[in-house]
Amino acid sequence: MLAKLGADQSLDAYRHVHWQGSFSDYLDLVREQPAVARTAYQRLYDMVVSYGTYPVGDEKEGLIRYRFFDDPETGGRNAIFGLTRTLTDFVNTLKSAALGYGTERRVILLHGPVGSSKSTIAALLKKGLERYSRTDAGALYTFGWKETDPETGEERILWDPMHSEPLQLIPQEHREAICAMLNADQPESAHHIAITGEACPLSRFLFRERLAEADGDWTKVLESVVVKRLLLSEADRVGIGTFQPKDEKNQDSTELTGDINFRKIAEYGSESDPRAFNFDGEFNVANRGMIEFIEVLKLDVAFLYDLLGASQEHKIKPKKFAQTDIDTVIIGHTNEPEFKKLQSNEFMEALRDRTIKIDVPYVTRLKEEVKIYEKDYNGRRVKGKHIAPHTLEVAAMWALLTRLEQPNNAGLTLLQKLKLYNGKTLPGFTSDNVVQLRRESKHEGLHGISPRYVQDKISNALVNNSESTSLNPFMVLRELEEGLKHHSLIPDDEAREHYRHLISVVKEEYTDVVKNEVQRAIAADEEALTRLCGNYIDNVKAYTQREKVKNKFTGEEEQPDERLMRSIEERIDIPEARKDDFRREIMNYIGALALDGKRFDYRTNERLQKALEMKLFEDQKDSIKLSSIVSNTVDEATQEKIDVVKTRLIRDFGYDDESATDVLQYVASIFARGDAKGDDR
Q1: Which residue blocks in 451-578 are alpha helix, DSSP H?
Q2: Which segments of 27-98 are extended strands (E)?
Q3: In terms of pTM, does the model score above 0.85?
Q4: pLDDT exceeds 90 at position 283
């Protein structure tokens, strides 16, 4: 096995990403590929846009989606669903910082409720930077110093502890000339070199020491410098830092800025000697990449001063030690209660002024919320259990309803608002109306139930119903409702009762959906539908041309069957006053197809197909005796018809045998109670 794997590996690829060379070699590299000397913000922005974009939503909105946030590298394992506007705002902030417009001197604060993907966004960026640093497009470099080991006499390399940019070794007075030479032949669109900041204090100390030995010739000093490719890694604490506040009594700012190495003070004689300092704080580690502050507003005030200096001045000041330049993207995240504390705390004014807040709300579009649950609950992940159709959808629907604000329009329900957001068209509402609805609801998605709660309850439903071969919507809704009793993040009893009411709203919507599916399964007789459609079209043709219809049984000429035509048209809400217009539209459409040599097919007209199916269902439901399913005895003829319907539910709608039986029994129980209202919806 090892031999086979060894034969498959590419040693050339390893050598390529672990390149080492002289400072002169690096200057040649910079001339050929100026992007290797980018700042941290420039590199992060380029990494995100390198994956490309694609348009989403309505054309009027003009939204684009950055493919990076779909997590294509791992097949969408950590994809961010929805939040397109939020992510666009975030990338625009990175772009502004990359261009040096001022946002590079700010803390990017991701603000939103728990479970809204703030941590996932940060994790994606960190993983993305790791991968990007291993590509040619994302290559970056650092340096070390050749020196002789005093004990063994062997030559070794002392690497810069903060992975500084090699160009920072060039003295200030020579930087302008060097940059002019490096940028001389570059096109206007290319990245232009600008050397900012200083190398870490240890490298500056070594540079001065060797400059004295070289009698002031700084170019000779650079001959002892070795440059190498830098591979960013959170696990190895190279270029990516993560900081999480701890108990206030145990917080220490040295965790951010590094600390004195007391064992070496005796050797070097001074606390400010850079050789007696550990450059292992999170800011030191994150140099050249990014640092994530988890729950940043829970930081002790002493930490916040370090944060202000790091963002505004790109410098950190360890205690009893020299100021140190850093180049890193600072991203923090926090929730609503902590952010309100920041707003009300007058001592935090400086931090507020240096913060760019980006709201990361919950998803408010149904199809995006469903994707969140499908990622974890699908046929690949859930073995031996069939997830019935609409199970994840009703859970997502309920979660979204808890997040939406009640519309100002009295004629619009919360459920209808959800459907409009999901792309459904409703009479009297245009895409402009939907945009206006979103504008009116400024805090939508910043409250309500998190996806985590729903995921926990889906998991409970899977475990608690282990005897069933399928998981159905009622199992999940039951868990969601039961969990409300103990949900610690629901603000008050009024909200809890509102959430319970929304479960009944979702149940009612689900009932309508499965009624429609059973109707379609019963009426899915292609031959019967074709005959019914043919009969309808014959009558419409005769009606519009003021002719009679020949009765195929008696052979007599008869008036068009108005009762038949209206029984179909009423299914799709064609009023009496508009029946003539609708019938002429149908005939004009059929005539246009005939001119193109095509035949009319009812399946190409979704509204007509629905009307025909509902009419056929009405005609057939009594012959199938659907209500008899819930009785103890079912005659053989009825059972055969029921089995046909069940087969169609499995084939056309994605049920398995158990869930198809459950749905049929549920719909049958409605008819058995005489609760047939809403069949026409």
Answers
A1: 451-464, 473-483, 493-522, 526-544, 562-569
A2: 53-56, 63-66
A3: no
A4: yes
